[in-house]
Amino acid sequence: MIKDWFYDKLKENIGELRYEHSLRVMEKSVELAKIYNVSVEKAAVAGLLHDCGKLKGGINLLKLAEDFDIILDSMTKNNHELIHSVLGAAIAEKEYGIVDEDVLNAIRFHTTGRENMSKLEKIVYIADMIEPGRSFEGVDDIRKLALVDLDKALILSIDNTLKFVIEKRKLIHLDSVKARNQLLIQKSME
Ligand SMILES: [Fe+2]
Ligand SMILES: [Fe+2]
Question: Which ligand gives the minimal distance to the CA of 23?
Answer without folding.
Answer: 2
